[in-house]
Design a protein that fits this description.
This protein is α/β, with parallel strands linked by helices. It has helices at about 5-15, 25-30, 40-45, 65-85, 90-100, 125-135, 150-165, 190-210, 210-220, 250-260, 285-295, 315-335, and strands spanning about 20, 50, 55-60, 115, 120, 140-145, 170-175, 225-230, 240-245, 265-270, 300-305. The chain has 2 domains: about 5-105, 2-Layer Sandwich (Ribosomal Protein S8, Chain: A, domain 1), CATH 3.30.1370; about 110-310 and about 320-330, 3-Layer(aba) Sandwich (Rossmann fold). The strands form 3 sheets. Strands 8-7-9-10-6-11 form a 6-stranded parallel beta sheet. A hairpin with a 4-residue loop joins strand 2 and strand 3 (about 55-60). About 35% of the residues are buried.
Amino acid sequence: MTQPRKGEARGKRRREATETIHFEDSALAKQLSGPNDRWLALIEDAFDVLMAAPGGAVTITGGTDEREAAKRAILDLHGRISSGHFDGEPDVKAAIRFARHDGEPGLTTEGVIRVGRRTVISPRTPNQAGYIDALAKYDLNFGVGPAGTGKTFLAVAYGAGELMAGRVKRLVVTRPAVEAGERLGFLPGDLAEKVDPYLQPIWDALQDLLGREALDKRRAAGEIEVAPLAFMRGRTLSNAFVIVDEAQNATVAQMKMVLTRIGEGARMVVTGDPSQVDLPPRERSGLAHAIDILHNVSTMKVTRFEKGDVVRHPIVAEIVEAYEADLARQNEARDSS
């Protein structure tokens, strides 16, 4: 007896049940397929289903759980396209991430960041959606996790949106000027030229969000400030949205200093990656210390990002995973010695 090929057997199993989702706007439904059916192919591969988009509908063939997950992805994707919050393949992959978390909400118009009239930033993972929700609800937020998870960019975008909407008078972004294994102190130039390399990523993000002209205008007016952490000492930051970036490199004393700068009408977001501390070996990170001792503060929220939240190039998630595995091996070897 001739055995069916693996693909044929899988196809027969998939065809055990088919579900059809109908959409009123057939033109919009057609966009769900993507160029050369690319979007449907991504969802098929993610959930082991077969899909087609005849007319104003999408059919999904596969097992019960797989169909339900693929359906969640299609409905999320439909919402992104119909609301104008669609950025191509990254948002398709975002819809897939949300669909994998059964019970987690997908994209809603309330769950996006609006920067002025035109720029809309959508969450691409459930943790990002929870982070945006926390930024709206809590006076003090901590966003911690690996590089590439969007913790700093989303905080900057949210703060820029609050400034543009007039809900705060200033956006202040600060980070400790700690060298990551390099000595920059003897470089030529004045103080501003020496610290600019530490702050450039923030200026780049703000320029992407606001545009050069608007950024320069608000910077000249003193509405946007990006400065080293040491410049915060002795100040009271009122009616401001304050972001403390790269906080894993703040000492305990520096963290206490900056947290107590919060004035009337101010909110603060502290971001950092606890795995990338550049402080001297015996110096405890102020980020880890603050999270440990402030857990009972009523208006504080900690959002913990994971490697699954990495939204840069896919290789970044693999790099993070490799380093985490290496650290686990080192810890295991140390504990057994």
